[in-house]
Write a structure and sequence with these properties.
Helices cover 9% and strands 47% of the residues. 15% of the residues are buried. It has 297 residues and is mostly beta strands.
């Protein structure tokens, strides 16, 4: 074997390089340097250790070059064969909001331990708002005709009550678009509501009967206007007075009326009281002389 002379300076430089790499203060004999250099290589490739600290109602997942680590055991350790980029996500169970994800080291090196954890998952408390419906019917005597109006609202069925307010709890952010059904001879206000539930809300829906009238024309059999006292009802209202040629009855369209006339002496009415419904037309009330026929159109 050939003999080679090595400078002390060169050996010292090699020893210094070893100590710089491994951080030790060890003094080396030349025969120990080869093993120390091999140890440096082994230390350089010491695996990165990943510590996933799971907690209740949420799951932390760590991806390593598309390989997913999902160990649900608390403080479970997973060793990685090389130093690579780590990406983590935290997802919560239904009804919970995930906590804030924490990572102990952003840029890991060989031999490091990287711990992933998250703050406590919080239970989601649904936010709701009180939605109240008031149903007004004009006239109120017609309220019994409006006891079957039902509306869909946030997965619920709301049955409007003309006698009492109806309230429900609706989800925050619920979008609604509701049209109210039409009723003959009634005007509904509003006829449609749209919007988003972001606060307590009160809706007032009014169904108002259209106005109606009827004119009773008092005439004799020759078409001459006559006068007569009367009393009776229009809808739920009582009326009385003296009609001079005409009696205009006012109320709501379709209301029934019944008017009893005091027939002047020497005349008669074929029908008394005079009855009908308010529909806007004119009706002749014919007073015929006693002994003649009388008709009401």
């Amino acid at each position: 074997m050939s003999k080679v002379f090595v400078s002390d300076i060169n050996l010292s430089n090699i020893a210094d390089a070893i100590r710089t790499k491994n951080g030790a203060q060890t003094q080396y004999y030349p025969r120990e340097m080869a093993a120390a250099i091999m140890a440096l290589d082994a230390e350089q490739h010491k695996p990165i250790q990943v510590n996933i600290q799971q907690s209740e109602h949420q799951t932390i997942k760590v991806k390593v070059k598309q390989k997913e680590l999902n160990n649900t055991t608390i403080n479970a350790n997973v060793e990685l064969p090389e130093t690579i980029q780590l990406e983590a996500t935290v997802t919560a169970d239904e009804g919970y909001t995930p906590g804030t994800l924490n990572q102990s080291l952003i840029n890991a090196e060989w031999g490091d331990t990287v711990t992933f954890s998250a703050s406590q998952a919080e239970e989601q408390i649904p936010v709701t708002h009180t939605v109240t419906f008031t149903l007004n019917v004009v006239p109120v005597s017609h309220a019994s005709n409006f006891t079957n109006i039902s509306l869909p609202f946030d997965g619920q069925t709301v049955v409007l009550d003309p006698y009492n307010d109806v309230s429900i709890q609706a989800s925050d952010g619920y979008e609604y678009d509701i049209s109210f059904p039409p009723y003959s001879y009634y005007t509904v206000t509003p006829n449609r509501i749209t919007g988003v539930c972001i606060d307590d809300t009160h809706f007032t829906i009014t169904y108002e009967r259209s106005s109606g009238n009827r004119t009773l024309q008092l005439i004799d059999s020759n078409g001459n206007l006559m006068s007569a006292s009367y009393s009776g009802t229009v809808g739920n209202a009582s009326i009385s007075g003296t009609a001079n040629g005409y009696l205009v009855l006012n109320g709501y369209y379709g209301d029934s009326y019944s008017v009893n006339f005091v027939v002047p002496s020497g005349y008669r009415l074929a029908k008394n009281p005079v009855t009908g419904t308010l529909s806007g037309s004119t009706v002749n009330v014919i007073f015929t002389p006693t002994g003649g026929g009388g008709i009401e159109l």
